[in-house]
Amino acid sequence: MSRLSFSSTLLASFLLIAAILGTAALGGLLTLEDFAARSREGAKHALGFSSALQELGERTVDMERSARQFLVLDDPVLLERFEQARDDSMTALVWIAGLGSAKSQGLVNQWIDAANRAAAALNARAGADATLQALGELPTLNEQLAAELRLQLEAESKRLLDELDGNREQLAWHLLVAVTAAFLLAALTGWWVLRPLNRVEGAIEALGESRFDEPVSIGGPADLRRVGRRLDWLRVRLADLEADRTRVLRHVSHELKTPLASLREGIALLKDGVVGELTTGQHEVVGILEHNSRALQLRIEGLLGYNAAVFDARSLKRRKVALRPLLESVVAEQQLQIQSRNLHVDIDVNTNVPPLTADPDKLRIAFANLVANAISFSPPGGEVRLKIACELRGVTIDCIDEGPGVPENESERIFEPFYQGSRQPAMPRHGSGLGLSIVREFVHAHGGKIELLPTSAGAHFRIAFPNES
After folding, report:
1. Comparing C-alpha atoms, which of 18, 52, 272 is closest to residue 145?
2. CATH assignment of 319-466?
3. What kind of fold does domain 6-186 have according to CATH?
4. Given the DSSP bridges, would you call strands 383-391 and 319-321 parallel, antiparallel or unpaired?
């Protein structure tokens, strides 16, 4: 099992990738430096050969001029000039012989032989013909040496260019291999690092959705494995807390409902006169006790139902949901209440509203509570308007009634559990004040929000779900 941490893994990967690419770049740089050095050396040799040929040509002219003047004047100084020019030519000939080819070496030997024959003829006073014949060979040999030098330099230049092409192809392969290796290393590192990160994200989502039965196991770098172990500890802890919460609610329900049932049974016995006839005042007291015990029972059941709804909101089973059919089915389920109040419910849906990825059962509960609230606060013969629209930021669902409305200072408190509001409808209504609280829990669970918009009459609630894109 690797002991590398997340940061050390990334650092090691970056260093390896940099080393691979750096090695390829360094190899290419060294190859180019070698080619540049050889090119400079070749240029230096070419310049030296050209200078040597120029020097050889000038000394050839000097030798011929000195020889002709000596043949006419027979002056020993002119013979010394000839010998000096011939000796100076030897330096250029040694440089030219450095070409290394057999032909250039043969031409150099011929040049030296012709110069020596001309010198011997001058020293022996053999006459002008022998001297000039030997000297006449030198310009031709100079031209041949120049032609051979050009061929040699062209061959060297072609060889360098061929090597450059080969080195360039080799460098391209090295770069291709280096980039491929770096890409594979980066992909392998990304897979090794991102895979456990995806598991961490999935584990957190599972904890958020109260799925505590799945153990958290995270691989990869050492620090991510430690995170996985802490998440699994958190999973066990949350599972214990959820079990304790459920157990406490069950016990509270039992401990409250049992004496409350006994109390209601006693109230019923008193009301039926089992222990004797009650006076008018006693009947009033019994009625008050009966009303409050029933209200208390509704509060207990509502509290348990609200806690169950809050817990249930954490676990969503999302799929594509068409909002209009869902809203129409919610309204159809409440037709009895609508008809009893002689209400008119209008559903207005824009044609461009897309399906929503949500839990249809949770949305049904939210819409049902919102519509039920609008119905219970609407006056007889009133209208409830439901609008679904698609906006730039997402989908909105508006519910507008003609009831007494909500004061501005109660616009936030109206969503608190058991809060009834100061404005109540003229007709009596039965409710625990949990409907809007449940709506808010389910809407928030889907990533949306619900708010009360200001209006001159009635109440205007708006549910907004964010744009899924």
Report:
1. 52
2. 3.30.565.10
3. Four Helix Bundle (Hemerythrin (Met), subunit A) (1.20.120)
4. unpaired
